[in-house]
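Quick sanity check, Methyltransferase type 11 domain-containing protein:
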Amino acid sequence: RHLRNIVIIQADVLAMPSRQCFDYAFSIGVLHHTSSPRGAFDSVVATLKEGGAVSAWVYGRENNGWIIYLLNPLRRHQTSRLPRGILGILAYAIAAPMFLILYCIYRPVGRFPQLAWLRRYLFYFDYLFFLTKIKFHEQALIIFDHLVPSIAEYIHRDDFARWFEENALEGIVLTSRAGNSWCGFGLRSASTQKHTD
C-alpha cells in the first residue's frame, strides 16, 4: 500500500485482464494447480511487452510416480475435502517423523562426502535433502500444500519445453529443481508478439 508504483490485481490466470503491459511475469507453483496449465501459461505470456521475460516453475512428472499414483488419488478424494484445521494437524503429524528422518539420515548423507555413496539408496534423495535446509514449520506447510489442492498436474519436461517453443519465446532455459520439478525462462521478441496476437 505504501508503494505507489505497485498495483495488485486479483484475476483468473486463464483470463488475464491485461495484455502486453509487463516487462516480467513469473508463476511459481500456480500453473499446475489450474484446470489448464498450458492455457494459463499462454495467458501469462500474453501479458508481456516486446522484450519482456517470463519465468515459470511447475511440478515435474518425472521422478514423481509415487506422488502421481499414491498421493494424488488420496489428495483428490480425501485430503482436499478435509476441513483446513484438521488438514493442518495431519500435515504436522506427518512432518514430525519426517523431520527426524531428514535430520538424522538425509542431512548427514548429503553433507558428509564419506556417506555420499548412500545417496542412491535413499528414497527421493535430492528433494528430501533439500528439505533438510528448511525449518520444521515450513516442512509442515509443504506437506499441507501437497494435500490441500483439488487440482495438481505433473508436467513432462518435453511438454513444458513446448509451452515456451510454441509461444515463440527466445533465449529459453529449462532446468530441473531437485529432480522433481521444472523451471523455465524465455523472452518475448517482436516476432513472439506477432505469433501470439
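Posting the structure with no commentary besides this: Strands lie at 22-28, 48-59, 170-177, 181-187.
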